[in-house]
């Protein structure tokens, strides 16, 4: 059936031990795609996702795992008659951009999977090289977050990393810098400053080595113009030129994720119906805080395919 929904794809943080296993067991198409991923990567991603325990939270496992789970779900939905190529638009949160570009026909499954595996490895390595993390500022706006990040930057790398939804801004950087941010947060009206359980300072200059590795890998990959509108986190607006897409993908690991801006662009264009295929319902939660009038339909469990 023809879609009237926009497809939005989750990023790192949506993972959990066992993700995708219910789809693998319920649908041969999902099983085939997971097995194909194992072959492309040369190791048992399925084992890591289904039985890996805490290992599934490692950046180099979580990223290909979330991508493959979302792709498997979309493959099942497509097999059930949902025309993915007629989606009104697509966007993904950070890592989710690679899934969105696969949906849009810009990247092959194999290329996207290899890229997200390399991206995860490179970000893990950069995190280990520069001790860093991320802090969510609950109740902060951009101006407050930028002021706190500037204070933190006196002790090391520190910048705004995610603008997810109203009242939820994330800063990223070296540990000493985040200590300063957190110690001054309440003085600037922040309700809560919460250190996130992530490997490192994603979407900051802490990730520059990862961006460089990713740029080199992207130079070897064929990227096509998207068949449906694709909105990038880097600008919060659509991009269709393959060269610009490649540039944004490389820069994205060091740039702020403009998710709220991306969704406001979509809403401004009349997109009010969204499909979130993947583990969890993170993006549905964010959308409730961006615009309660929008509808996000989850496809997180096999029974959700029956209503596709």
What would you say this structure looks like, in words?
With 308 residues, the protein is of the alpha/beta class. The protein folds into 2 domains: 6-127 and 206-307, 3-Layer(aba) Sandwich (Malonyl-Coenzyme A Acyl Carrier Protein, domain 2), CATH 3.40.366; 131-199, Malonyl-CoA ACP transacylase, ACP-binding (Alpha-Beta Plaits). Helices cover 45% and strands 16% of the residues. The chain is built from 12 helices and 10 strands. It has a 6-stranded mixed β-sheet with strand order 8-7-2-1-9-10, with helices on both faces. A 4-stranded antiparallel β-sheet has the order 4-5-3-6. α12 (282-290) links the parallel β9 (273-277) and β10. α4 packs parallel to α5 and α5 (96-103) packs antiparallel against α6 (109-129). The longest helix is centred in the first third of the chain and has 21 residues, at 59-79. 51% of the residues are buried. The mean pLDDT is 95.
List keywords for this structure.
alpha/beta, Malonyl-Coenzyme A Acyl Carrier Protein, domain 2, Alpha-Beta Plaits, 2 domains, six-stranded mixed β-sheet, four-stranded antiparallel β-sheet, 45% helix, globular, Ac_transferase_dom_sf
């Amino acid at each position: 059936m023809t879609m009237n929904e926009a497809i939005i794809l989750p990023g790192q943080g949506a993972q959990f031990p066992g993700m995708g296993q219910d789809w693998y067991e319920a649908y041969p198409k999902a099983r085939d795609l997971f097995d194909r991923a194992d072959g492309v990567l040369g190791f048992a991603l399925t084992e890591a996702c289904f039985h890996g325990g805490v290992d599934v939270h490692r950046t180099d496992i979580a990223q290909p795992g979330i991508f493959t789970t979302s792709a498997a779900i979309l493959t099942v939905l497509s097999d059930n008659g949902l025309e993915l190529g007629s989606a009104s638009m697509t966007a993904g949160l950070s890592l989710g951009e690679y899934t969105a570009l696969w949906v849009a026909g810009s990247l092959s499954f194999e290329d996207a999977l290899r890229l997200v595996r390399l991206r995860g490895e490179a970000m893990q390595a950069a995190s280990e090289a520069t001790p860093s993390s991320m802090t969510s500022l609950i109740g902060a706006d951009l101006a407050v977050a930028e002021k706190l990040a500037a204070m933190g930057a006196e002790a090391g790398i520190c910048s705004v990393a995610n603008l997810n939804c109203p009242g939820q801004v994330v800063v990223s950087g070296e540990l000493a810098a985040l200590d300063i941010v957190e110690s001054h947060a309440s003085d600037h009206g922040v309700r809560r400053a919460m250190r996130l359980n992530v490997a490192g300072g994603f979407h900051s200059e802490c990730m520059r080595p990862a961006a460089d590795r990713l740029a080199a890998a992207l130079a070897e990959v064929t990227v096509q113009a998207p068949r449906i509108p694709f909105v990038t986190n880097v600008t919060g607006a659509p991009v269709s030129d393959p060269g610009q897409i490649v540039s944004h993908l490389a820069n994205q690991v060091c740039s702020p994720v403009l998710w709220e801006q991306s969704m406001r662009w979509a809403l401004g264009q009349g997109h009010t119906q969204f499909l979130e295929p993947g583990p969890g319902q993170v993006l549905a939660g964010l959308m409730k805080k961006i615009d309660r009038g929008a509808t996000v339909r989850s496809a997180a469990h096999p029974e959700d395919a029956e209503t596709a």
